[in-house]
Amino acid sequence: MRGIDIRFMCAAALVGIIALAAGARPAAADETCNSPYMGNLIKGQEDYLYVWALGIKGMGDGSDKLVTIDVNPSSSRYGKVINKVSVRGQGEAHHMGFTDDRRFLWAGGLDSSRITIFDIGADPSRPKLVRTISDMPAKTGYVGPHTFYAMPGRMIVQGLSNTKDGGGVTGMAIYSNKGELVSTHAMPTTDGGDGYGYDVAINPQKNVMLTSSFTGRKNYMRPLGELVKDAEAMKKFGNTMVVWDLKAMKAKKVLNVPGAPLEIRWSLKDGDTWAITASALTSKLWLIKPDASGEWQAKDVAVIGDPTQIPLPVDISINKDGTGLWVNTFMDGKTRYFDLSNPEQPKQTYEKVTGKQVNMISQSWDGTRVYIASSLLANWDKGGADNEQFVRGFSWDGKELKPTFEVDFNKEKLGRAHHMKLGSKAMKAAYGLERTATLR
Amino acid sequence: MASSAPRRCAEPLIGSIAALLATAALVVAVAGSAVDAHEPDDGVPGAAPMDFVPPPPGSYALPTIMRAPDGPVLDPAGRRRPLSRFTAGKITLLGFIYTSCADARGCPLAYQVFHTVRHRVSEDPDLREHVRLVSLSFDPARDTAAVMRRYAAGAPANGVEWAFLTTEGPRTLVPLLDGFGQDVRVELDTHGRPAGPLAHVLKVFLLDKSAAVREIYTTAYLYPEVIMNDIKTLRLADRPQRKAAR
User: Fold this and answer.
1) Residue B196 belongs to some domain of the structure
2) How is residue A329 annotated by DSSP?
3) DSSP per residue, A237-284
4) Residue A54 β-bridge partners
């Protein structure tokens, strides 16, 4: 090191020491499942759970809505719904994602293809609808905005389908945080690519983005019982993942991952360079990592339940150090825990029936609190008494999931509970009344 | 209490620490005044390791993300100027800072990356006249024009413009923050009252010479190699226009 640089580094070290003295703790990643570009992690007790719920005709106002639940045990309103914001009609509310600064929450409708943006920075306990993007199909040719993944100053929106035939060939649209379309990127249809899309996950240090694949609108809007009897339709599910050069936004390699690989989670442990996913139709866990020569590969490393019974793994949640993975299987209503100490050989160590149907699962940064929601898709949810609609909170001590609270979405006429995101009082914009709205 | 881990730049929560920070900033400035002939590359504080070879300049697109906002700022001499004076006409690397910033992965990281980029630009005759850097304070109460002038002493002239700017106060600062999408938040205590440092996500903006934002970097992606390739990509895009203009 040059002598002159040493002087600079001495100053930097002093600054670092002072930072530690002031209690500033830099973070390496987000709370378990969000974009690494998000800086505002909730590492302590979360205050709110935002739930994106599908409206049910004849129930309450019948509209899709963002429901806010107080989840701080020290609050007098713990486990209660404290706010709800309805949007126009039923658009198959599905997934959500924070902007990089966590000030705004974007939420998508798979049927309407509308993107609804909520301001959660002004008052995290009372999200406010500030903008709706309704022209994604017209401007991009893609429909079914699914994954919302923060990039610096912008949002990647992964489509599920297209305007031409409602099939699974689709692409990604990138919007500025203000909601303006920046660029579009088709999923690859050559070199083994099937053109399908589902989830997005980025490893900035590797300049790698991974995408997965599901199915098109004609399938996901069709009643599940009818769909599974249609052999031709069942062939139209994604069987690939794609490794992208993130900076160039160019597909580098298509990986063969049969059976609709869904959520993708990178290990958040420093030094790890692997990701994991679950294939819904083949009920397997897949490990994605570079081989000895640096070539990205995917291999199945575990089965989830009995694949012949199609338990339908629908969501996963990795813990902060990449040593454990929750897996929810929709059909049998089970929540399973896999030990990932050796990601090449995950071992299931726990399971519990947490509902008659279960879909999304989220955990706090420290892993001691787990949240589960019930709904998969309006036309895929079960019927009759099996059609429970809820958000359930659990504590996790490493041995047992213990119920802590429940919100019955049927009883409270809120609709079908789908995606969940955590919120905190600490996420509040500065400069009070002098701050203007970014989104008008 | 819910805790978050953004880039926290030390609002003087503790008076003595604030004094130390000011001292540290000056030490950085003094050291910087002596180091400018060298590239401050070693041991960037808190930078995540870069484990890839970035695509070469011109092999990828940098679509326009948004227009840079405009509004009044104060230059180090305390003169009121439009920000556009510092964002148009050259490829511009702009970041918001506090001079009292303490998080090694926050402002000090950006400061050192700016130094590195500026040094590399200064060595490239095709870039030297066409690139500027801008550091704009989002703490106008403490970062007066005089403070920014002292801070600027850490970046002596090397042929590459580096403007250190502030604003008259929140009323002129906030529209710029909102225009760039730069968040600032207040940490709250267990009673929901403001306490502790201001917090923000570190963002650095790359603008083309027409003041359109073409790339945004946060801590997870703030690599001098990537920034230099992006600058060269914008410069390559300028070339047909330069030829046509002749």
Assistant:
1) yes
2) E
3) B--EEEEEETTTTEEEEEEE--S-EEEEEE--STT---EEEEETTTTE
4) A416
pTM of the model: 0.88
Q: What is the pLDDT of residues B143-200, one digit of tens each?
A: 999 999 999 988 888 999 999 999 999 899 989 999 999 887 766 566 666 555 567 7
Q: How many CB atoms lie within 10 A of CB B19?
A: 12
Say yes or no for a CB contact (<8 Å) between A8 and B112: yes
Q: What is the pLDDT of residues A1-53, one digit of tens each?
A: 233 232 333 333 333 332 323 323 323 323 567 778 776 778 899 999 999 99
CA distance B10 to B5: 13
SS3 B191: coil
For residue B1, is it within any domain? no
Residue B62 falls within a domain, yes or no? yes
Å between A20 CA and nearest CA of chain B: 8
On whether the CB atoms of residues A111 and A379 are closer than 8 A, the answer is: no
**For A102, nearest residue in chain B (alpha carbons):** B183
| Tokens, residue A297 | 């590969």
For residue range A327-376, what is the model confidence (pLDDT) as tens digits? 999 999 999 999 999 999 999 999 999 999 999 999 999 999 999 999 99
Mean pLDDT of A212-224: 98
CA distance B188 to A164: 50
Q: What is the ipTM of this complex?
A: 0.88
Mean pLDDT across chain A, nearest whole number? 90
Give the residue among A367, A298, A360 at the shortest CA–CA distance from A328.
A360
Question: Do residues A261 and A281 touch, judged by C-beta distance below 8 A?
Answer: no
Q: Is B67 on the interface with A (CB under 8 A)?
A: no
Report the CATH number that the domain containing residue B228 is assigned in CATH: 3.40.30.10
Q: Which range of residues forms the domain containing residue B22?
A: 7-47+56-245
Chain-centre distance for alpha carbon B207 = 12
Bridge partners, residue A405, by sequence: A393
The answer to whether position B2 is within a domain reads no
Q: Mapping DSSP to helix (H, G, I), strand (E, B) and coil, where does residue B177 land?
A: helix
What's the residue count for chain B? 246
Select the more confidently predicted residue: B26 or A168. A168
C-alpha span between B8 and A348 (Å, rounded)? 39
**In this structure, how many other beta carbons lie within 10 angstroms of the beta carbon of residue B53?**
8
What total of structural domains would you count in chain B? 1
**Beta carbons within 8 Å of A210's beta carbon, 6+ residues apart:** A200, A201, A202, A203, A241, A242, A243, A244, A264, A275, A288
Query: Rounded mean pLDDT of B10-26?
Result: 32
pLDDT in tens, B61-102: 999 999 999 999 999 999 999 999 999 999 999 999 888 776
Report chain A residues whose CB lies below 8 A from the CB of B24: 11, 14-15, 18
User: In Å, how far is B37's CA from the nearest CA of chain A?
Assistant: 10
Single-letter amino acid, residue A396: W
Return the number of other C-beta atoms located less than 10 Å from residue A284's C-beta. Answer: 21
Strand order in the sheet with B185-188: B7-9, B194-200, B185-188
